[in-house]
């Protein structure tokens, strides 16, 4: 591996292609840490937003009008406002209202840091879309199936958990895939509230080492790779879950 | 039994709602009204609560400050273009650029020349899957701030570059919309056009594309709304948009009690602009839906 880094250093000296973020161990460590943060943020947000989606879609099927209206209001609010402004609202307007805790150095700081707020705001943002996606899947489940579950004595939650949701998830996987890709791309916005994710670290590196073009191309390739893995996984999931006798 | 009845009743209600959904006016259901009310109420409610706190401090009340800064956030500083108006302008420009190039790219994706098709596909996938913010940085940092043309130096202002940066993902998604719309036209139409001795270009221009327009309008509008909601990103790369000016106003005031109302105001501005578009798109989608 070291000889490869040496080769990249040689490329820089000989051709001026500055890949310092690979061959310099400090910059490489920074970048890897940033990528890890992006990965953590993505995975946590995907999990949370799917939970919000499942729970919200269940609430939307509720008999109580007020509850339905509240969920609808949540969806419309988060769908029709810019995710960046949402993030700023959470971090700068709600953040200071949180109780303060004393950290290891004896300094009082707000309970939730920028990473937590980025996670919360992105999950709420993607969750609003997920509710609608799961809802569309649930609506597509044949009502006869639901009635059959009812007739077999399933409670409302049981029918949702064991009959409707497994079918609905299969129907709405392509739409969910789209939204999750969008979510992973939106994690770059955490840059704005100084979460040390890939874009943030990359911008630090290109400011320090003046290799904007090389760094940006690396950045784009990294995100294409990340999205590629996600899409590949989702397609695998789709195939694994496919019900024989449906489609094609 | 009762839940079954409820289910039947609900489906009946849904059918009648779908029947009455033909008119645009009925798209504004009580839910929608409630949402709009809440969106407007958030800033006002926080104002009320804060105004009481404020009376003891002795400076301007929150409402007064909001009214003072509102014109700046809406239209930017005097004799300068900025604020929310700039967000809208950038969204128009990026949409126009993205649509024009995207249609060409989309037609490239359905070309009969394999290399062209592959190139258009690769470009589409690349720009569709790259994060908006990274593309924006790409354009902002890697294009010069002015270009020299025939001895004149033409400045490239930030908002122009930002529009180009935001138009890239729109271009890629527009390309997919065009491809999807063309593929949704039955193959029989291509074949019958061929049997009537239409050339490929004629078929595309006179038969296929006119039908595609109707199908493309709802997703196109959807992407416009998404683009508008992405415009605050340009504040990160230093354009004087509503987001930047809100932060400027907040740092000028140095008051923590203004944080919530100011950001709520910004959220409400975008909501009031985007929500009607979303409703309109939904209505058009229903209207243009292919009925089987």
What is this structure, in a nutshell?
The complex is a heterodimer of chains A (248) and B (292). Chain A is mainly α.
Low-pLDDT runs of 5+ residues of chain A are none
What is the structural class of chain A? Answer: mainly alpha
Overall mean pLDDT of chain A stands at 88
How big a fraction of the residues of chain B is strand?
under 5%
Tell me the series of helices and strands of chain A, N- to C-terminal: HHHHHEEHHHHH
CATH homology superfamily name of the domain at 43-92 and 110-189 in chain A: MetI-like
Number of helices of chain B: 11
Query: What value does the Rg of chain A take, in angstroms?
Result: 23 Å
Describe the fold and architecture.
The complex is a heterodimer of chains A (248) and B (292). Chain A contains ten helices and two strands; from the N terminus they run αααααββααααα. Chain A is mostly helical and 248 residues long. Chain A has a domain at 43-92 and 110-189: MetI-like (MetI-like fold, Orthogonal Bundle), CATH 1.10.3720.10. Chain A has a two-stranded antiparallel ribbon with strand order 1-2. In chain A, β1 (100-102) and β2 form a beta hairpin. The longest helix of chain A has 36 residues, at 25-60. Chain A is globular. Chain B has 292 residues and is mostly helical. Chain B has a single domain (2-288), classed as MetI-like (MetI-like fold, Orthogonal Bundle), CATH 1.10.3720.10. Chain B contains eleven helices and two strands, in the order ααααααββααααα. In chain B, α4 (83-109) packs parallel to α7 (158-183), α4 (83-109) packs antiparallel against α10 and α6 (132-142) packs across α7 (158-183). The radius of gyration of chain B is 24 Å and the shape is flat. Chains A and B meet through α4, α5, α7, α8 and α9 of A and α1, α2, α6, α9 and α11 of B.
């Amino acid at each position: 591996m070291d000889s490869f880094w040496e080769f990249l250093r040689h490329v820089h000296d000989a051709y001026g292609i500055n890949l310092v973020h690979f061959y310099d161990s400090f910059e490489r460590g920074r970048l890897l840490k940033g990528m890890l943060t992006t990965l953590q943020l993505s995975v946590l947000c995907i999990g949370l937003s799917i939970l919000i989606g499942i729970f919200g879609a269940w609430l939307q099927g509720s008999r109580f009008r007020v509850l339905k209206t509240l969920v609808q209001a949540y969806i419309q609010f988060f769908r029709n406002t810019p995710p960046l402004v949402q993030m700023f609202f959470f971090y700068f307007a709600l953040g200071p209202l949180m109780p303060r805790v004393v950290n290891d150095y004896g300094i009082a700081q707000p309970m939730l840091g920028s990473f937590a707020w980025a996670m919360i705001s992105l999950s709420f943002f993607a969750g609003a879309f997920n509710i609608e996606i799961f809802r569309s899947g649930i609506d597509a489940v044949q009502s006869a199936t639901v009635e059959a579950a009812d007739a077999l004595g399933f409670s409302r939650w049981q029918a949702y958990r064991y009959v409707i949701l497994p079918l609905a998830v299969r129907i709405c996987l392509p739409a969910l895939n789209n939204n999750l890709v969008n979510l992973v791309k939106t994690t770059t916005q955490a840059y704005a509230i100084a979460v040390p994710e890939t874009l943030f670290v990359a911008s630090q590196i290109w400011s320090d080492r003046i290799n904007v073009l090389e760094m940006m191309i690396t950045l784009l390739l990294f995100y294409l790779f990340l999205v590629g893995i996600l899409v590949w996984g989702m397609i695998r999931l789709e195939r694994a879950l496919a019900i024989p006798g449906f489609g094609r | 039994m009762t839940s079954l009845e409820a289910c039947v009743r609900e489906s009946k209600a849904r059918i009648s709602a779908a029947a009455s959904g033909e008119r645009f006016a009925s798209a504004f259901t009580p839910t929608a009204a409630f949402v709009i009310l809440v969106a407007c109420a958030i800033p006002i409610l926080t104002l009320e609560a804060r105004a009481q706190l404020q009376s003891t401090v002795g400076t301007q009340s929150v409402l007064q400050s909001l009214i003072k800064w509102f014109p700046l956030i809406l239209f930017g500083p005097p004799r300068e273009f900025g604020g929310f108006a700039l967000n809208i302008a950038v969204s128009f420009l990026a949409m126009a650029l993205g649509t024009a190039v995207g249609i060409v790219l989309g037609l490239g994706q359905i070309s009969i020349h394999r290399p062209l098709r592959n190139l258009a596909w690769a470009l589409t996938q690349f720009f569709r899957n790259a994060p908006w913010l990274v593309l924006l940085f790409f354009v902002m940092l890697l294009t010069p701030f002015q270009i020299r043309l025939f001895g004149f130096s033409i400045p490239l202002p930030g908002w122009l570059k930002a529009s180009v940066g935001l138009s890239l993902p729109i271009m890629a998604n527009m390309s997919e919309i065009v491809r999807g719309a063309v593929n949704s036209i039955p193959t029989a139409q291509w074949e019958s056009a061929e049997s009537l001795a239409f050339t490929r270009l004629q078929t595309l221009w006179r038969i296929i594309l006119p039908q595609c327009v109707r199908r493309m309008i709802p997703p196109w509008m959807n992407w416009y709304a998404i683009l508008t909601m992405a415009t605050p990103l340009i504040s990160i790369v230093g354009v004087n948009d509503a987001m930047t000016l809100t932060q400027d106003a907040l740092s000028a005031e140095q008051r923590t009690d203004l944080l919530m109302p100011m950001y709520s105001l910004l959220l409400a501005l975008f909501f009031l602009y985007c929500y009607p578009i979303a409703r309109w798109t939904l209505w058009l989608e229903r209207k243009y839906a292919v009925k089987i």
